[in-house]
Design goal:
This protein is of the alpha/beta class and 349 residues long. It has helices spanning 10-52, 61-74, 82-95, 100-107, 111-118, 124-137, 141-149, 152-155, 165-168, 171-180, 198-207, 209-216, 263-278, 298-305, 323-348, and strands at residues 184-186, 220-231, 234-244, 249-255, 288-293, 312-318. The protein contains 15 helices and six strands. The model has no long low-confidence stretch (mean pLDDT 80).
Length: 349
């Protein structure tokens, strides 16, 4: 018996189409970024091997040339010329002692842009600035070069802080917390295509908690949602509660579907006081709060956190990857691929 077709309303079909497009675009941008990260990790490991063997251009050139010949015989499409191998060593040496935030940023850049940054003798702070701007604005190599020539790292304004970690945490922990927490989180994996309520957003995050943990980063353990804190005969509920092993802190996340308003900071300060008083264990650091909202004004955030005694950060989130961001990322990866192969052919000649 033939299966009976189920009719679908036009608005239901449009929602299905939007959700499918969001899934495909999210997958494509993840693939594009994964290409850059995988290439950087590969070059990093090769550079580490060369560094550990103490190969220098004066005494190790013969070894590197032989290595290049053998590698290109096995992997002819990777452009593993002697010059590229030396570049990989330089890449490793440049960043081997840098902090995790800088390493994460340069790992997302196409190789051609990393080579450009290597050759400009920039400080860690300036390198991080250009790496983050390239990622956020989709710069290709030429745009990055022009930005460096214009000295944009010398003239850009420092944005207001999205947290008060510096004034509420010890210096070492404050620096680490700034590396752990982001200013923006991508929740595109939720497949949201229309406005939803805060509880629905929370439920979707719980359903896909593994993906949310990947977006948060390493070290997070999920304790629960709508976590109840009982104190002084009253009950309070935290939207989502985590523990971060590296920071050794409870992390409370308050979800907001709208724009950040100052009152949220006071509420989070209260939650953190309760957590520190009732659930923080001996040897653990102060609890940290993250207010995750759809939009934020940095001046509002700065004023709202002024005078707050508990460590609080404010982050916004993206639900759907913008089409322009996707196109820029993929175009940058294609250009990087072409540049690498062009360099490899030049070295062979």
């Amino acid at each position: 018996m033939a299966e009976e077709l189920v009719p679908i309303q036009e608005n239901e079909y449009k929602e299905l189409l939007l959700q499918t497009v969001a899934v495909i675009e999210r997958a494509r941008i993840n693939v594009a970024r994964r290409i850059a990260t995988t290439a950087s990790n590969t070059y990093w490991e090769i550079g580490r091997l060369l560094h550990e063997k103490k190969l220098e251009s004066k005494h190790g050139s013969g070894v590197v040339k032989r290595l290049s010949v053998d590698l290109r015989e096995r992997y002819p499409d990777m452009g593993l010329s002697p010059r590229q191998l030396w570049n990989m060593k330089s890449f490793y040496v440049r960043y081997m002692d840098c902090d995790e935030k800088l390493l994460r940023s340069v790992a997302l850049l196409p190789w051609s842009q990393n080579l450009l940054l290597l050759n400009k003798d920039l400080s860690d702070v300036d390198t991080l600035y250009y790496a983050q701007e390239s990622i956020a604005k989709g710069w290709n190599r030429d745009l990055l070069l022009n930005a460096i020539k214009l000295g944009m790292h010398e003239t850009h304004s420092v944005p207001a802080a999205d947290n008060n970690f510096e004034s509420t945490l010890p210096a070492v922990q404050s620096q680490y917390a700034n590396e752990v927490f982001h200013s923006t989180y991508n929740l595109g994996f939720l497949g949201v295509t229309k406005p939803i309520l805060e509880l629905e957003l929370e439920n979707r995050l719980v359903e896909k908690i593994k993906l949310f943990l990947l977006e948060l980063g390493k070290g997070f353990t999920f304790i629960g949602n709508q976590h109840t804190i009982e104190y002084n005969g009253k009950e309070s509920r935290v939207d989502m509660l985590f523990f971060h092993r590296g920071l050794r802190s409870l992390v409370a996340i308050d979800l907001k579907i709208g724009k950040f308003i100052p009152e949220y900071a006071g509420k989070m300060n209260y939650y953190l006081s309760l957590l520190d008083r009732t659930e923080r264990q001996e040897g653990e650091n102060p609890s940290i709060g993250i207010i995750l909202c759809a939009e934020k004004d940095r001046l509002d955030v700065e004023l709202a956190l002024e005078g707050i005694t508990k460590p609080i950060g404010v982050a916004d989130y993206k639900l759907i990857i913008p089409k322009e961001e996707l196109q820029k990322t993929i175009a940058a990866e294609i250009q990087s691929f072409e540049d690498e192969h062009a360099e490899g052919k030049t070295d062979e000649s």
